[in-house]
Amino acid sequence: MNLLIDIGNSRIKWRAAEQRRLQLGDAVPRGGQDALQRLKTAWSSLPAPDTVLATSVADPASHADLQALVSRLWRRDMQFLTSVPEQLGVRNAYPIPGNLGPDRWAALLGAWVRGLAPCCIVDAGTAVTIDVLDCTGQYRGGMIFAGLGLSRRALTERAHRLPPIVDGDLPPLATDTVEAIRLGTTEALIGAVARGVQRCRQQHRDLRLLVTGGDAELLVGSLPELEPQLHADLVFQGLAAVAEEGG
């Protein structure tokens, strides 16, 4: 069994995997002892993993508590995925391969090992990334912009009198400020993704659209004309393949 961890900007997600088959898992908000306690409770029931492999967009200094927990439970070291020039048949387009975010690299690997290329991968989290992988395994490049939560925080963090923004049905047009922010940021996300995918498909034909990340279901439901496919576990599928190959 391998333990796979995805340390994002706002959550720590994990899955157990056996020979690339994803099994149980969970997600906890990042930060604080509560997150560590929840992980400890969940992981204490697992057998000792052969490999603990993580991808992280967080500051490496923030990994110490998580690494200590893994060490206490199983006397294992956490390994961290890094983007390299070539892996599992996928070739990196970045001039400095390590500058490509490891979560993006893992999603590319996941799409490739599942036979989903050529594809356009939209990962809609705190940041939204759009990446293109061609039918030969060549990563062609992509784009990054602010995700839904980040856009909303940017608009509200200095407006102290605004109540929290709570998701719900969207009105055709908003008649108060909170609703206006919720509607505007949602439409901005949908529009930016649609335009980004259109740009990718102009450059590379016959791209399957794969959507993952926290706001994936919103995008899949909002962009039926683009024929999106929900693939919630692309990052973990890439990590599972790397772990099974021995890192």
Automatic annotation (TrEMBL):
The active site is at D103 (proton acceptor). It comes from the Bacteria. One of its GO terms (molecular function) is pantothenate kinase activity. It holds the Pfam family Pan_kinase. Its main location: cytoplasm. One of its GO terms (cellular component) is cytoplasm. Keywords: ATP-binding, Coenzyme A biosynthesis, Cytoplasm, Kinase, Metal-binding, Nucleotide-binding, Potassium, Transferase. A monovalent cation. Ammonium or potassium. Transmembrane segments: none annotated. K(+) binds at D123. ATP binds at D6, I7, G8, N9, S10, R11, I12, K13, T126. The keyword Kinase applies. It catalyses: (R)-pantothenate + ATP = (R)-4'-phosphopantothenate + ADP + H(+). One of its GO terms (biological process) is coenzyme A biosynthetic process. Its EC number is 2.7.1.33. Pathway: Cofactor biosynthesis; coenzyme A biosynthesis; CoA from (R)-pantothenate: step 1/5. Catalyzes the phosphorylation of pantothenate (Pan), the first step in CoA biosynthesis. Homodimer. Belongs to the type III pantothenate kinase family. HAMAP family: Pantothen_kinase_3. This is Type III pantothenate kinase. It comes from Natronocella acetinitrilica.
